[in-house]
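Let us work through a complete example step by step.
Step 1: write down the sequence.
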Amino acid sequence: MTFDRDPFVQFLLEEAGRPLTARQLLDRLQVPADSEAAFLTFLQERVNAGDAVEIKGGQYAHPSRVDLVVGRIQAHKDGFGFVIPDDPTQRDLYVKPLGLKGAMHGDRVVTRPERRGRRPEGRVIRILTRARSLLIGRIRIRKKSTVVIPLEERLTQPIAVNRDEILGATDGQVVQVEITAYADAEHPAEGQVTQILGNPGEPDVEAKAIALQHGIPVEFPPKVLAQASKVPDQVREADLEGRRDLRHLPFVTIDGESARDFDDAVCSTALEGGNFSLWVAIADVSHYVREGSVLDQEAFARGTSTYFPDRVFPMLPERLSNGICSLNPKVDRLAMVAELTFSRGGRCQQAEFYPAVICSRHRLTYTVVAEVLRDPDCQAAGQYADVAHDLWRMGELARAIRTRRQERGTIDFDLPQAEIILDTQGRPEDIVRSQRNWAHFLIEEFMIAANEAVAEFLTKADIPLPYRVHGEPDPDRVEEFRRFVHNFGYTLKGKTKLHPKDFQDLLRQVEGKPEERMIHHMMLRSMKKAEYTPVNVGHFGLASEAYAHFTSPIRRYPDLILHRHLKAAVRTRRPTRKWRDQARQYLAADACPHLSLRERAAESAEREAVSWKKCQFMADKVGSVHWGYITGVASFGAFVELEEFFVEGLVHVSGLGDDFYHYSEELRRLIGERTRRTFRIGDRLQVRVDRVNVDRRQIDFALVRDETE
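Step 2: predict the structure and record it as tokens.
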């Protein structure tokens, strides 16, 4: 007999009139005698997950029924913390340092609220799961003690280590330590050094430290590399069985100059009546990474590739990601193909999916393709004369698809991003605006079209899949954003029922205005994060009814899952109901929650890596003066992003100098007590670089003057 979480939680919330012992639960839920042991295991799993709590007398209840809060600790470098509840309707709880009871940043805990003062407080009564058993820090060797000081400031407790277990590390080096005993009220945490990364400040050491701090593996285990070495380096005759031969079609890959792994190749032909055929070929990673294999387990654990300015920590070993799985030019490659038919107006009229073999004609870059699209007589058009007409046709099709997508209300956050230019030593020598052109849009439109077509096909076929969903924005956050843009003289339409078009219309109004970047950022903050889930709620930002990730299986594990399920759907023998039920359970309980978390970890690591490089770049610019815009305001000061470099720093409130400034929560601005001078998001300021702390990824600015003076 199996037990499901949701009915059990519903029972605790709605039917259990009081806390119940395990025996009472067995009786009330009518668990057969031969399933009692399985239920008790299930009950303990629910306690460990925070769905139930055990209280005095061996009784169980839902946390909310006994005034307990389950959530995750968000620690502060000064020792206190907050509990962020799992239930979004509950308020965050402030926890004093002593109330943490040894809980560390990221731990999931059970907290007892204590109403003191104006803000909700609480204290940790049980730690459910630890966020980490490994951490990165600097080792400090003294006469009487040896400790590792975590690099993460929110991990405030040093880890005591035995001098015999430091692997020969020297004072000040960056190391990885495994926690063997967590701290409690009387004892510090203990651990042992498992890896020496090296001396602080070295590029390799810093990059690996950032990755490991966020749980990103930096090396592949030997057994994974051993299995990867056995994968063939070229397509074999036996691999072609059951595949369509598309090697005659003029596929091309279009990527950035530095790309080394090519997930996708495209080609297009014209049909009668002005219609188009589009083939989107995606690397058939699932042919080489068998489900359940050592390679597969490692790819699932990583979840995604992680990209730093100077390196990548890939999901798959290089032999696969840059070799047999990559759609390199002039060689046969296996692919899963989406063959799509479009009307002249950009409507997808028909879609077919199948495994194939292709041979890409050329490895093209965005720069080259944009030049060909812009000027039919350019040198690049002559160099790639065999595919130039295909590129022009694809450009025409992409414009039609993009126009149609915009008509339905998709939100395009197309702001320039920072591109960090590195020298041969990996040090930043410049930060420039990244260039996006029509070649970028062409590939973007084709990938979105393929993703939507696959999601629609599998949905109609009742095949479970990891949807990429983006829920409707929270009404309270939207109202807050509405008030924010009103301060700039703009109005967000759609008060009763929001539609993506309402946001799109606003973005058109602010295009080219000084406040454009800030309004883009605040709009993003008002929206929910996209995530993976087996339940389709649509994609609000794309105004799409069904969306999934199909186009990047080399670097995203959800795409690999989707490829496997797509293959199951197009086989002659359709999947059984049992297979579908098991697939849905796997997606809901294991894959989607894990892969969403891995994506967040990679994004967090990537942000820190960019901050690291930006701080390195600004380190020799202390004293220089620049113009910038306020991107955020808090009680302690204003965050300013420099126009020239896309670098953000803090102007501390103490540095404003001419008055006492107080933060208005309602107006989201700093207001001078005497002068009534204000600082708000979007204001243009001239600042001086005051301090740069590369280790802490912090840049401090001093106000020189603002544009209104």
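Step 3: interpret the result. The mean pLDDT is 91.
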